[in-house]
Amino acid sequence: MMLFTKLLLAHLIGDFLLQPKRWVVHKEANKVKSKYLYLHVLLHAGLMFLLLWDFSYWKTILVITVSHYFLDLGKLYANPKFKNKTIPFFVDQLLHVLVLYACVYYENLYEHTLSLTSLIDWPLVTAVVFVSYPTAIIMGIVLEGMSNRIEVDHKSLPNAGKYIGIIERLFVLTFIILGRWEAIGLLITAKSVFRFNDLKESNNRKLTEYILIGTLLSFGMAIIAGIIYVGFHQ
């Protein structure tokens, strides 16, 4: 586990802390001809050697370095084909982590992976998934008739409300699992403070009622999911 942790740390440092924006821009513009692509890959190799400080792992580091080069190169050529740049980014990061995992546990990869899957808390996974997009869709359907009657005189970020709702429900679920019900009250208070100016300036009773219903519905569904999960484990 320590080997995987150190390799992951090297990856995080190399990909995020020690990769300037100009390197990224240069790589995206020049792709395979970019000098920073090779410098970036060599930096990763150096970080792995530095953190492991054991040259007996040179084969592992070589495999990871070569795979990192081809994965980064593949992402550079795939990027222009995606409107949503987060997709190739997260796929690339996932593949990097899978390569690290495979290199560390290659001797008993199947057995180790099977043991990890047996540790998954499936009720928790179900609760987390439920309070994310499924709840957002359910709320959209329930509130659809009301939202059509609301006149909004200000612009907001696309899907900002949906993502805020998902994040707040994840917080609520976490607080319930940890038994910190008072933190939910603080979360509601914080959201009310942020919303106060919008509601005050709009002076729109329908908007106020719509936001209040949406907030209570969002928190309520997260609380129900949390109570069911906690009850499942009692």
Automatic annotation (TrEMBL):
InterPro entries: Phage_phiKZ_Orf197 (IPR021737). Pfam families: DUF3307 (PF11750). The chain crosses the membrane at residues 36-55, 90-110, 122-143, 170-190, 210-232. Keywords: Membrane, Transmembrane, Transmembrane helix. It comes from the Bacteria. The keyword Transmembrane helix applies. This is DUF3307 domain-containing protein. It comes from Maribacter luteus.
